[in-house]
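Researcher: Here's a chain I'd like modeled. Treat it as a single chain, no partners, no ligands.
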Amino acid sequence: MPGGDGTPSQAPDEGVLIRAENGDVVTFDATGLTLRLSDTVLADLRRRLPLAPAAPVAAPDPAPDAADVLGDIDAWGLAQAGGWHHFTARLEPGRGARGYRRPVAGGDIIADAPGPLCALLALGGARRAGFTPGPPRWRFNVLAPGDHIGAVGLEGTAEAVRTPGLQHIPHATRESMTADRLLDWRADRGMGLPLILTRAETDNVASIAALAEGRGYANFLTAVDSLIAAAATLGRRPRVLAVGLDHTLEDPGTDPDAFVTGLRALMARVEADFNARGLARPLFLMTFEAGTRARGDQPQILAHERLARAHWPHEVLFSAPGYMFAQDRFGRPLDAARLRMAEMDAHAIAGHGAGGWRCPLPLLAETEGDGRVIRVTCDALAPLVIDAGDPLRAGPACGFGLAGTDARVKGAAVAPDDDRAVLVTLDRPVDGPARLRYAFGAADSPDEYPANRGALRDTWAAPALDGQGLLHRWALPAELPVHPGAGR
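Model: Modeled as a single isolated chain. Structure tokens:
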């Protein structure tokens, strides 16, 4: 209708059509009319019409009792989300109440941990397959793929199967002990405690080249695929902290150059397979080969020296030299040594993330003065030390020796003008094309340590978990040509 001035009026969007003394009766809005009836009218309608009573609202199912689902453990706050039961419990003596989860379909209880699903993986020969009785100390955080194999794989004897599950570990491997130590430090700092999957796959092949083609490597990739599948089940991203490589003494017939070539090819293949799975290029972690109790001139020692000098483009970290660990007559670490190796691995991983980790490495040997002194310049992160206590019993030569000359080493000391250099004193000047050796070329060990020994380290030190003294960053074995010095 037009308004008073002849223009059309705008109809309201809502309003009241009928109003009674006790309120609005008929209203309207954009959705239509609304009729509001009094209680008296509603009661009259119920009498006149056969209206069925409203169905009662069912009470919600009671929450499941934690004991019925989880068994007789100190747990509470049970809730289900997706395929998981989540709850709070006290399961680890001395660690208080924490969050845990277990698959609804059944399986092991694991920590309800923050962050990515991490992994410590290893690939190598028979020496890497060892383990120590007893589970990890962080048994709900340090786990294995849920294939009922454990943290040590099938040793190249059968084919592994990809699994999205995670399981407890009944034994302690080098990887699980490394994970334990990393979690110890995070707990001390009040940091998040992630889940860490561990698995070492080995193969009884006779060369580094064959390792990349064998069943052990295929099972290694299956472990990687299980990591990715488990991370997806948890709603987490996968992250590999390090890949340990340990295949040296199993390959006695390869010369140093060929061994380095084979090792580089293996690392390149791992990197390519990781990239194809959307994983970052891994950190390769190794113990620097130092030989056995009966022999200390294996070509793999020199191969590791060459890789330590130039490992680009691969990310390689030598956590420690092998001469600091006790071993059996086959060159395999004893249980106590395996724990120390794991600790050094953990320190290397943590140190690498904090800005760097390098064991001292001799780089250059030059004569000084009349030729009775050789200056050895080292690559080191901290000042060098000749350990006066000689805990590894290297003797007066401190681990240094000569080849290609009749001269003999009398002693060694850190250079007074350079704390990254060592002055090695001789009984006579070198003659001919001499080579200076450190922790290389020895034989016939008097005890359970490799024949090669050394007393050179830097100032870094940390308490050992076993309470037996300190861990040190000992220098890596090397063999250097002795160059005539320019004089000083």
